[in-house]
């Protein structure tokens, strides 16, 4: 049996969760989630229960809803409140939730509006956690969450994450980060993705620590929460870029970041220039980790190890990670240069794509999950992410070129604010490198030839952009990732 939240079995008055001014102690969280869990459709005879949808706003309601579902052994399907009508129709038809958990004031769209509805939190305070008997345990392979992928290669796929995967990934991170109940995790991440929900909410609650969600992210909000006792900050590169800008001019932001125990970035590689700017402004290094919806967390820079900017660290305890060539041959070189596709195995993996046995079978090479990400491994065993195989690996003139290193070189140019790199078909080279650049001064952008020469000097001549296109802004998703398919 897999108990996910030991602290809820022996609740105390310690703060479990705070979102804005809304705060819940462990005693209150145990009581509210037990009360809600008792109202959910329970699995019969030890079998699997049908899922429930959760309208995943950045509120305490979402945390209560998901934790209650997990305590009841009912799979939760987090739904992005900004989801489009077509995607929502697919999600509800595919997962067939029996009801939706949403706060009373929330207006639900289309396919969710017709479902039975429960409010996650009671109208009046729940006195205690009575009625929690029989909760908090389930088989390790029982589905815990169904999280839908971005759908870049077709309709979004429902990733079925078992209780075993949540427990193993959070415990592995606790070992790598020396994460304990004394920590308060600060973040402003969405709660319908793995990063914000699993790491940012379920992680602290599993440790018996505190979640401090700032609502809408801003450097000032993050700094205020850290200064008020936050010990760990979770963010994505876009957030850390804004923090680097603010820390350079704000003593309060700089001091708050300097006082944190850990600064953790994920969901996409953090550009080296932002690593360097944050280190210069705060004296603190940002730690990166690497994971996917299907695998949860695979690698991380360790809290007790040396700083490793530009890498996502070493495999987490219990996780196997390897690089393979296109023909399936394993890459054994640890030179930090040889590129291969990253494959992983371990207890952190999902069980299957919902209703998609074909996609599930295609995603695995034996026990190894094909991530579709390309990377290198250095002599210390640390991995560096080059990018997605489909969008970030450029084959030009017989060379394999990673878009990420060119983007880092461009971002080091003083006149570049943002940069993305893609490959486009070329009759001579196979693909040519194209840079998409947001200038710091849009009225006086840098010279394209100067940027190409800058990359050639920083890296190698064959990695220089053959074309530079200037934009007002790069297209990004809710997690700040650049949507490279839209750049075409």
Q: What is the SS-derived class?
A: alpha/beta
Note the beta-strand portion.
25-35%
Q: What is the arithmetic mean of pLDDT? A: 91
Unreliable runs, pLDDT <50, ≥5 residues? none
Taken from the alpha-carbon principal axes, the silhouette is: globular
Task: Kindly state the number of beta strands.
Answer: 26
Strand order, biggest sheet? Answer: 2-1-10-9-11-12-13-14-15
Describe the largest sheet.
Answer: 9 strands, mixed
Rg to the nearest angstrom?
23 Å
**Fraction of residues in H or I helices:** 25-40%
- Counting DSSP H or I runs of 4 or more residues, the number of helices is 14
Distance separating the two termini: 49 Å
Provide an overview of this structure.
The protein is an alpha/beta fold and 488 residues long. The protein is built from 14 helices and 26 strands. It has helices at residues 26-37, 60-72, 85-95, 110-113, 163-177, 194-207, 219-227, 237-247, 251-259, 272-282, 357-362, 403-411, 448-458, 484-487; strands spanning 15-19, 22-25, 52-55, 76-79, 100-101, 117-118, 143-148, 158-162, 184-187, 210-213, 232-235, 262-265, 287-292, 296-300, 314-315, 320-324, 340-345, 352-353, 364-365, 368-377, 383-388, 393-396, 399-402, 416-426, 430-439, 467-470. It has a 9-stranded mixed sheet with strand order 2-1-10-9-11-12-13-14-15, with helices on both faces. Strands 16, 17, 19, 20 and 21 form a 5-stranded antiparallel sheet that branches. The protein is globular. The termini are far apart.
């Amino acid at each position: 049996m897999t108990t996910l939240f030991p602290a809820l079995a022996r609740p105390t008055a310690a703060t479990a969760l705070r979102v804005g001014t809304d705060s819940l102690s462990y005693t209150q969280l145990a009581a509210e989630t037990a009360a809600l869990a008792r109202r959910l459709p329970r699995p019969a005879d030890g079998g699997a229960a049908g899922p429930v949808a959760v309208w995943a706003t950045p509120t305490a309601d979402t945390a209560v809803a998901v934790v209650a579902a997990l305590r009841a052994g009912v799979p939760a399907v987090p739904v992005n409140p900004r989801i489009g009508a077509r995607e929502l129709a697919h999600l509800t038809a595919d997962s067939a939730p029996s009801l939706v958990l949403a706060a009373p004031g929330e207006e639900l769209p289309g396919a969710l509006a017709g479902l039975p509805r429960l409010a996650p939190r009671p109208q009046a305070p729940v006195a205690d956690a009575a009625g929690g008997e029989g909760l908090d345990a389930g088989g390790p392979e029982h589905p815990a969450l169904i999280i839908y992928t971005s759908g870049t290669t077709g309709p979004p796929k429902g990733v079925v994450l078992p209780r075993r995967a949540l427990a193993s990934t959070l415990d592995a991170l606790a070992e790598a980060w020396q994460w304990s109940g004394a920590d308060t995790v600060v973040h402003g991440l969405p709660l319908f993705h793995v990063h914000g929900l699993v790491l940012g909410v379920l992680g602290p609650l599993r440790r018996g620590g505190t979640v401090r969600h700032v609502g809408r992210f801003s450097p000032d909000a993050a700094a205020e929460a850290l200064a008020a006792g936050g010990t760990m900050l979770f963010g994505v590169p876009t957030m850390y870029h804004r923090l680097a800008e603010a820390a350079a001019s704000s003593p309060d932001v700089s001091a708050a970041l300097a006082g944190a125990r850990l600064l953790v970035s994920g969901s996409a590689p953090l550009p080296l220039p932002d690593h360097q700017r944050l280190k210069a402004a705060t004296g603190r290094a940002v730690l990166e980790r690497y994971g996917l919806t299907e695998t949860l967390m695979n690698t991380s820079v360790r809290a007790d190890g040396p700083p490793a900017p530009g890498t996502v660290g070493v495999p987490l305890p219990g996780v196997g990670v390897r690089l393979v060539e296109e023909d399936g041959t394993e890459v054994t070189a640890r030179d930090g240069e040889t590129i291969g596709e990253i494959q992983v195995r371990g207890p952190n993996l999902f069980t299957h794509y919902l209703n998609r046995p074909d996609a599930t079978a295609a995603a695995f090479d034996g026990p190894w999950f094909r991530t579709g990400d390309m990377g290198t491994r250095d002599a210390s065993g640390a991995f560096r992410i080059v990018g997605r195989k489909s969008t970030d690996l450029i084959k030009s003139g017989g060379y394999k070129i990673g878009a990420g290193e060119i983007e880092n070189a461009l971002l080091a140019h003083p006149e570049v604010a943002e940069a993305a790199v893609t490959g486009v078909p070329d009759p001579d080279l196979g693909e040519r490198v194209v840079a998409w650049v947001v200038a710091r001064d849009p009225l006086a952008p840098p010279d394209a030839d100067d940027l190409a020469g800058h990359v050639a000097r920083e890296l190698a001549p064959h990695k220089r952009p053959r074309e530079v296109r200037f934009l007002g802004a790069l297209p990004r998703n809710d997690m700040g990732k650049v949507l490279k398919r839209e750049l075409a």
